[in-house]
Amino acid sequence: LRPDVQVIPCGLHVDEVVAAARQKPERPAAPIVYAGRLQDNKRIDLLLHSIARLSRPGLLLSIFGAGPERPRLERLAAELGLGGRVEFRGLVRTSRELWSALATAQLAVQPSEREGFGLFPLEAMALGLPVVYCESPESAVGELVRDGREGIASEPDAKALARALE
Predict the structure, then answer these.
(1) Residues 77-107: pLDDT tens digits?
(2) Using alpha carbons only, how large is the chain's radius of gyration in Å?
(3) Beta strands at 114-115 and 138-139: parallel, antiparallel or unpaired
(4) Cβ-proximal residues to 135 (8 Å cutoff; 6+ apart), any chain
(5) How far is the C-alpha of 121 from the C-alpha of 108, rounded, in Å?
(6) Mean pLDDT over all residues of the chain?
(7) Closest CA to 15 of 130, 127, 141
(8) What torsion do the CA atoms of 33, 159, 66, 108 make, to the nearest 10 degrees?
(9) Measured between alpha carbons, how far is 118 from 110 in angstroms, rounded to an integer?
(10) Cβ–Cβ under 8 Å, residues 134 and 111
(11) Whose CA is closest to 49, among 128, 136, 163, 146?
(12) Which among 5, 45, 67, 122 is least buried, having the fewest CB atoms inside 10 angstroms?
C-alpha cells in the first residue's frame, strides 16, 4: 500500500449477527439463500438455471432483496418450472430479521459478476454458513471466502454452479 492511501475495512459486528440468529425467524429460509440487490450483474438468472439442474424436491432457494430484475427473474423461475423450489422474499425490515432467517439455511450463494466487497458472504460466514460463489475478475468475494475453507468457488456456468451447490 502507498503511505498516502488509508484503507478502511468494511465489516460487521459478529456478536450482533449471532445474537439475531438465536431468535426464531418469522419464516425460516430455504436450504440455499441469496441476499442482495436484484440487478443484472448479480447473475441471479445463472443461479436459477443452476437450481433447475438440482434433483432435490421441495423448496431449495430463498432470495432476499429487491431490484429492477425481479419481474424478469420471477418469469424465468416460472419458465424453468421452479414455482415450488424458489421463493422471492423481497426486502426485510431489518438486518436482524435477515440474520435470523439465514441461520436456518444450509449454505449461501453469491453468483455476482461484480462485487466490491460482499457483505452478504461475510454475514453468512458469521453464521457458519459455507458460501458458494462464482469466480470473476471483478469480484472481491474470493478475497473474503477462501475456496475450500469458508466455501467453494465455481465457474460462472449453470452446470458448474449446480455441482458446487450439490
Answers:
(1) 999 999 999 999 999 999 999 999 999 999 9
(2) 16
(3) parallel
(4) 142, 153, 154, 155, 156
(5) 7
(6) 92
(7) 127
(8) 20
(9) 8
(10) yes
(11) 163
(12) 5
Q: Per the structure block, which three cell numbers stand in for 35? A: 441476499
Are 71 and 44 in contact by the 8 Å Cβ rule? The answer is: no
- Taking residues 132-146, what's their average pLDDT? 92
The 3-state secondary structure of the chain reads: CCCCCCCCCCCCCHHHHHHHHCCCCCCCCCCEEEECCCCHHHCHHHHHHHHHHCCCCCCCEEEECCCCCHHHHHHHHHHCCCCCCEEEEECCCCHHHHHHHHCCCCEEEECCCEECCCHHHHHHHHCCCCEEEECCCEECHHHHCCECCCEEEECCCHHHHHHHHC
What pTM, to 2 d.p., does this model score?
A: 0.91
Dihedral of alpha carbons 84, 67, 48, 76, sign: positive
Bridge partners of residue 131, in order along the sequence: 108, 151
User: What type of residue sits at position 160?
Assistant: A
